[in-house]
Amino acid sequence: MLRLFLLISLTCLVRSDAAETCPSFTRLSFHSAVVGTGLQVRLMLYTKRNQTCAQIINSTTLGNLNVTKKTTFIIHGFRPTGSAPVWMGDLVEALLSAEHMNVVVVDWNRGATTVIYTHAANKTKKVAIILKEFIDQMLAEGASLDNIYMIGVSLGAHISGFVGEMYDGQLGRITGLDPAGPLFNGRPPQDRLDPSDAQFVDVIHSDTDALGYKEPLGNIDFYPNGGLDQPGCPQTIFGGIKYFKCDHQRSVYLYLASLREDCEITAYPCDSYRDYRNGKCTSCGTPEQSCPVLGYYADNWKDYLKQKDPPMTKAFFDTAEKEPFCMYHYFVDIISWNKNIRRGSITIKLRDRDGNTTESKIDHEPATFQKYHQVSLLARFNQDLDKVATISLVFSTGSVIGPKYKLRILRIRLRSLVHPERPQLCRYDLVLMENVQTVFKPILCPKLQM
């Protein structure tokens, strides 16, 4: 019995020491959110030397922070229940894997934890002042503003902007992940994130109809799925708490996906989501300029954007329901020979030699097919099949009652936007019966065909 007692005591002691030597993000209860919390900011440093065990630092103790390297601050937002952000650990790990840097988690949970959103929003400028004091000390030790990178989530995006404004926009970069909309919509630039707050500001808008900010706030503003409802998120209140936060949090998970090597999310500069879906925005500047990519490597577009006046652009793209979220874009060029105009949607399915399939429904608005006119439809697939063995098509007018129509196709051509070097696939003389799947084997298009 004595041995058991000593073993339990030793175990508790080890756990207590571990808790002291490896500080964790502040976790509060819902009770704390109800009664409210006073502002307290903790800075938690992670580096290659301490990737899993945080080091508490402040303006008098920089710890392992190497002022000669990039320092990335992660700033969370409103915490109505007091819990820690579920994505924080993954983001720290992914950043350290991407580059040898300092990662500083800005833990202002005591202040962000409240059921009254206004109370948290009112503390954002105070958090920014505390961060400036810390950065001032970094600069005194030899750090450069060029190497300061801030990733702000929701309210954290505006905190990043306030810090950037204090340094006259000389911070290296700010990334805003679905910047908070309530209480900030319509506010002047000095009261929110804006493009002048850093040398480069990129923003992901994933919940513009609820918790996020709708209008552009950066040098480049990304709007996944138009910035509204995100695929895979609950569409009704019956989805529980996910209904309220899933769209808002999707910006974080899209950014995380950019740090992994599963795929590269390409976006298309465009004036509107509708124009993007209609295939009007697949050119990304000069032939030498590739399209911007979402997330960590978005700053590859920094120099190109500087040539624009003003240096701002909006970019649109669609995603899959779950990680890694990538969609692969193709043009489906159709020349029809119906005597009368046909309007409707096309569903196209690809199948490779191994039996893998991927499908795209091009039904956001009816396409108009006229005799001998080419219609170019933008198809989005969640798999990139290299060797396409068969293609299937379904034409639909969307009519439940009434006659069934035919779509007579003189030529259909499939061409990849992501891999333009791939051979284009064609087929000639097809007749599609409405709502009936037509399957065929494609052939290589003539090489000189444009």
From TrEMBL:
Signal peptide start-end: 1-18
Domain of life: Eukaryota
Swiss-Prot/TrEMBL GO biological process terms: lipid catabolic process; phosphatidic acid biosynthetic process
Classification via CDD domains: Pancreat_lipase_like (cd00707)
Active site (UniProt): 154, 178, 248
One Gene Ontology term, aspect cellular component: extracellular space
Binding sites annotated in the UniProt record for Ca(2+): 192, 194, 197
Subunit structure, as described in the record: Interacts with TTMP/C3orf52.
Role this protein plays: Hydrolyzes specifically phosphatidic acid (PA) to produce 2-acyl lysophosphatidic acid (LPA; a potent bioactive lipid mediator) and fatty acid. Does not hydrolyze other phospholipids, like phosphatidylserine (PS), phosphatidylcholine (PC) and phosphatidylethanolamine (PE) or triacylglycerol (TG).
Protein's name in the database: Lipase member H
